[in-house]
From TrEMBL:
A Pfam short name: Spermine_synt_N
Residues covered by the PABS domain: 13-252
Family indicated by similarity: Belongs to the spermidine/spermine synthase family.
Species this chain originates from: Yarrowia lipolytica (strain CLIB 122 / E 150)
Record flagged with keyword Nucleus: no
UniProt name for this protein: YALI0E04763p
Domain of life: Eukaryota
Record has Transferase as a keyword: yes
Gene Ontology BP annotations: pantothenate biosynthetic process; spermidine biosynthetic process
UniProt KW keywords: Polyamine biosynthesis, Transferase
GO function terms (MF aspect): spermidine synthase activity
Cleaved signal peptide residues: none
InterPro entries named among the record's database cross-references: PABS, PABS_CS, SAM-dependent_MTases_sf, Spermi_synthase, Spermi_synthase_euk, Spermidine_synt_N, Spermidine_synt_N_sf
């Protein structure tokens, strides 16, 4: 019996290549050891492969979402920058996040009573349980409730109800596919309504200062039109094109988001987290001069 080898258009001669119209003229390459899964779900093209250096890698619509080796940098930053900007987060919502890594981080905060996650594509959760167990462990916590549906529709319902959140984390894919609405003004207005008065929102900004920085500025301007305080920070990691991913953090009431409201002890930090610490929280907001001038229009 012959076993058919899996194939994917982004993999040639054992090299995966990520290219996108959002960052023309450059790409990211990873060496592939084995293709583990290829499918077209109802919402997106799904690929999982084992790389030679970065462990298993999840790719949606041709764009790397997470790799086992460096995922903690992204998951910790998108979670803890927001969570540490709140005095006592009890109810937390993740939009997207189907690999489970952000949930894994949220429940490290003892104040959390409920962590909800709304993911559109159940196959991402199932595949993460199979191929990314160190992230999918986040689904095992008893405080976690999962909703399988469109995150925009979900947040619209939350905004109409009395069920508010302290922190909302948008851990979505890029704006080209089912996550497009998460980068528009209406979404941020709904988030604002869905938050308690001292609520915090963080969202992956899809780009960074080296890639489509106009997009980052546009997103920041949208957020500034809705929230009292808005800041841009970045997580540094090799498997996102150009080595970093920007995050937009917003607060409903005016506050200095660059300084964490709480912090773990050194012992807690060294046992709970591998990337995030108080110094990284503060430093992640520091921009090079050209980016600062562009973003702030100075
Ligand atoms: N860390 C990643 C990044 O920034 O590249 C994001 C990882 S996470 C796996 C992204 C998730 O968002 C995917 O599982 C995708 O299915 C989900 N997603 C995209 N659009 C969505 C929508 N409209 N509602 C809920 N989840 C959505």
């Amino acid at each position: 019996m012959t076993v058919k080898q899996l194939e994917h258009a982004s993999i040639k001669n054992s090299w995966f290549t990520e290219v996108s119209d959002s960052f023309p003229g450059q790409g990211l390459m990873l060496k592939v050891e084995e293709i583990l899964h290829v499918s077209q779900s109802e919402f997106q093209d799904v690929l999982v492969f084992r790389s030679t250096e970065y462990g298993n890698v999840l790719v949606l619509d041709g764009v790397v979402q997470v790799s086992e080796r460096d995922e903690f940098a992204y998951q910790e930053m998108i979670c803890h920058v927001a969570m540490m900007s709140h005095e006592c987060p009890k109810r937390v919502l993740v939009i997207g996040g189907g690999d489970g890594g952000v949930l894994r981080e949220i429940v490290k905060h003892e104040s959390v009573e409920a962590a909800h996650l709304c993911e559109i594509d159940e196959s991402v959760i199932e595949l993460s349980k199979k191929y990314l167990p160190n992230m999918a462990v986040g689904f095992d916590n008893t405080k976690v409730t999962v909703h399988i549906r469109d995150g925009f529709e979900f947040i619209r319902e939350v905004a109409r109800s009395d069920e508010k959140y302290d922190v909302i984390i948008t851990d979505s894919s890029d704006p080209d596919g089912p996550a497009e609405k998460f980068f528009q003004r209406e979404y941020f207005q709904l988030l604002h309504t869905a938050l308690n008065d001292d609520g915090i929102v963080i969202t992956q900004s899809s780009e960074n200062v080296w890639l489509n920085f106009k997009f980052v500025k546009q997103l920041r301007d949208i957020c500034k039109g809705v929230f009292a305080s808005v800041e841009y920070c970045a997580a540094l990691l090799p498997t996102y094109t150009s080595g970093q991913l920007g995050l937009m953090v917003c607060s409903k009431k005016p506050t200095n988001l660059k300084i964490p409201k709480r912090q773990w002890t050194q012992e807690e930090e060294s046992s709970l987290v591998r990337y995030y610490n108080k110094e990284i929280h503060e430093a992640s907001f520091v921009l090079p001069n050209w980016a600062k001038h562009f973003l702030e229009g100075t």
